[in-house]
Design a protein that fits this description.
Histidine-containing Protein, Chain: A; 7-stranded antiparallel β-sheet; 2 domains; 30% strand; Lipocalin; alpha+beta; 295 residues; 4-stranded mixed β-sheet
């Protein structure tokens, strides 16, 4: 009996010794490894903000997702490699795009909203054209005279009436020139005063202009008349304020189509006189093109 018991004890001891290494070699499960790595990463200040997922299979760990920066990515891999039971690490994680100052990383990762289409371009305004034949009624800024004015002298004035709405507003400054100024002789010879406009200032821009000649003559001793020259004079308008003599010699104003001119009858040995603020009508002999901003 004793001899049969000894082999049985030996078999039990050998089975225990054989099973001991197997028990010692059994490590943590894949689920435990993944949870442990995730917990350590969440507690580490370098990796706590990273959106990295941990998966384990047969001891091999796979990292995926996004780390907040390269340093966090390296630290996450280091934690995984130091975990007991890990046989290898496959780091498939990426680094998130840098967030703008004061912007959360998740916002930086969001796709940019589509920009709205640009507004349709506005049509370009067209230039404004004042045609030839347009009458410009101008108030003179100073007195003009066949005796005292000089040929080539510049005179100033303002537009008395608007033309084409705001294109040429009333009050616009105009510049003219005395084309001819000749005093009347006491016995013979005629006095003459010819005027024309040369430019107009509108909304900060000065434009050259051309007008028909506005002319008046007074003949020698005896009956004197003022006549006109220039395009459209026959259908023009008499302009008031021209003084050829004493009291009551001012000429009334008449409106008409076409050009304006100076006209009237004079008595005595007086010269052609145009007081300041006299309204005179000039007819444009060429069109005027204004920039679009002028309206």
């Amino acid at each position: 009996m004793l001899n049969l018991a000894k082999p049985a004890i030996s078999i039990v001891l050998m089975s225990a010794l054989i099973g001991l290494p197997t028990a010692c070699s059994h490590g943590p499960s894949d689920e435990t490894i993944a949870k442990d790595i995730q917990s350590k990463a969440a507690a580490d200040p370098d990796t706590r903000g990273s959106q990295v997922t941990v998966a384990a299979k047969d001891g091999k760990v796979t990292l995926s997702g996004q780390a907040t920066n390269p340093a966090a990515q390296q630290k996450f891999e280091q934690i995984a490699r130091q975990e007991p039971g890990v046989t290898g690490v496959d780091d498939q994680s990426t680094v998130a795009a840098a967030a703008a100052p004061g912007e959360a990383p998740a916002q930086a990762m969001a796709p940019a909203a589509a920009a709205p289409p640009p507004p349709a371009p506005k049509p370009k305004p067209q230039p404004i054209v004042i045609p030839a034949g347009t009458v410009l009624t101008v108030r003179t800024g100073q007195a003009l005279s066949s005796k005292t004015s000089q040929t080539g002298q510049t005179f100033m004035g303002t537009l008395a009436q608007p033309v084409k709405g705001k294109a040429l507003p009333a009050g616009s400054s105009v510049t003219g020139t005395v084309v001819t100024a000749k005093a009347k002789g006491k016995i013979k010879g005629e006095g003459q005063l010819d005027l024309a406009l040369t430019s107009i200032a509108v909304h900060g821009h000065t434009y050259p202009i051309k007008t028909a000649l506005l002319s008046s003559t007074v003949k020698g001793k005896g009956k004197r008349t003022a006549v006109t020259t220039g395009a459209g004079a026959g259908g023009g308008a008499l302009i008031g304020g021209l003084a050829g003599g004493g009291k009551g010699a001012a000429i009334g104003a008449l409106a008409g189509a076409g050009a304006g001119f100076i006209g009237g009858t004079f008595t005595g040995n007086k010269q052609i006189e145009i007081p300041a603020e006299t309204p005179l009508s000039f007819t444009m002999s060429a069109p005027l093109t204004l920039s679009p901003a002028a309206e």
